[in-house]
């Protein structure tokens, strides 16, 4: 199983959080959040980068009509708020805990820049992960604007295969153990839970997938 931000077998939290470094360890702690707690809001100062020790975080913004647009749902080991590294001074999105046991490691931008200057290879990986994240977001926004809901769901299943899937057996099927609830998936593809449930059952009837709460088997004809 491979998560988006686990690259070259490196978990960013394990190698980056300041408590791992003697220089930054003193005085460093972890911030705890409950479900629906905000980590930052739109228009807040962008002076930190965040790593998830455990739990889940929703990244999004509100449209002019007040509708919530979900950009990403992130889990353990993942990085967010990274645009501060690139010079963004004000947040253009919100970050909200969607788990009762979310624990966050905060890193000041100056500390991050120091770490990146001192390790060129690590710096390259950070920029690589930021670029990949932007590319993924651009693709998701294109799907929301141009594709119907079923196509968005199929594309999301392909994405899950890449990020969390592994070969199950000789049938060629992919087994996906993922961290998302149906509510999460519905938010990410821009639909309601009821519509998502209908579409999942349609795909099951068409013998494209089988699914349980935390596992999806994607058959080889689309995997």
Structural features, described:
With 223 residues, this protein is of the alpha+beta class. The protein folds into 2 domains: 12-144, Jelly Rolls (Sandwich); 147-218, Winged helix-like DNA-binding domain superfamily/Winged helix DNA-binding domain (Arc Repressor Mutant, subunit A, Orthogonal Bundle). Helices cover 37% and strands 26% of the residues. The chain contains 7 helices and 14 strands. Strands 3-10-5-8 form a 4-stranded antiparallel β-sheet. A 4-stranded antiparallel β-sheet has the order 4-9-6-7. A hairpin with a 3-residue loop joins strand 13 and strand 14. Helix 3 crosses helix 4. Mean pLDDT is 82; it is low at 1-10.
Total DSSP helices: 7
CATH class of the largest domain: Mainly Beta
| Gross geometry | globular
How many β strands by DSSP? 14
SSE topology string: EEHHEEEEEEEEHHHEEHHEE
Structural class: alpha+beta
Strand content is 25-35%
GO cellular component, one term: cytosol
Domain Cyclic nucleotide-binding: 33-91
Pfam families: cNMP_binding, HTH_Crp_2
InterPro entries: cNMP-bd_dom (IPR000595), cNMP-bd_dom_sf (IPR018490), Env_Response_Regulators (IPR050397), HTH_CRP (IPR012318), RmlC-like_jellyroll (IPR014710), WH_DNA-bd_sf (IPR036390)
Question: What features would you highlight for this structure?
Answer:
223 residues; alpha+beta; Jelly Rolls; Arc Repressor Mutant, subunit A; 2 domains; 4-stranded antiparallel β-sheet; 7 helices; 26% strand; disordered N terminus; DNA-binding transcription factor activity; Transcriptional regulator; cNMP-bd_dom
């Amino acid at each position: 199983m491979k998560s988006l931000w686990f690259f070259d077998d490196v978990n960013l939290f394990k190698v980056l959080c300041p408590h791992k470094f003697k220089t930054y360890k003193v005085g460093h702690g972890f911030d705890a959040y409950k479900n629906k707690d905000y980590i930052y809001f739109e228009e807040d100062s962008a002076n930190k980068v965040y790593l998830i020790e455990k739990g889940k975080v929703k990244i999004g913004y509100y449209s002019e009509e007040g509708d919530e647009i979900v950009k990403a749902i992130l889990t353990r080991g993942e990085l967010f708020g990274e645009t501060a590294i690139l010079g963004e001074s004000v947040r253009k999105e919100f970050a909200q805990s969607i788990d009762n046991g979310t624990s966050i490691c905060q890193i000041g931008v100056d500390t991050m820049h120091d770490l990146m200057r001192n390790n060129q290879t690590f710096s390259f990986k950070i920029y690589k992960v930021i670029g990949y994240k932007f590319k993924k977001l651009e693709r998701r926004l294109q799907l929301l604007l141009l594709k119907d809901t079923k196509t968005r769901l199929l594309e999301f299943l392909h994405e899950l295969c890449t990020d969390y899937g592994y070969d199950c057996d000789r049938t060629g099927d992919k087994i996906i153990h993922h961290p998302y609830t149906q509510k999460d998936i519905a938010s990410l593809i821009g639909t309601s839970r009821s519509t998502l449930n209908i579409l999942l059952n349609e795909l099951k009837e068409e013998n494209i997938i089988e699914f349980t709460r935390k596992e999806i088997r994607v058959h080889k004809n689309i995997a």
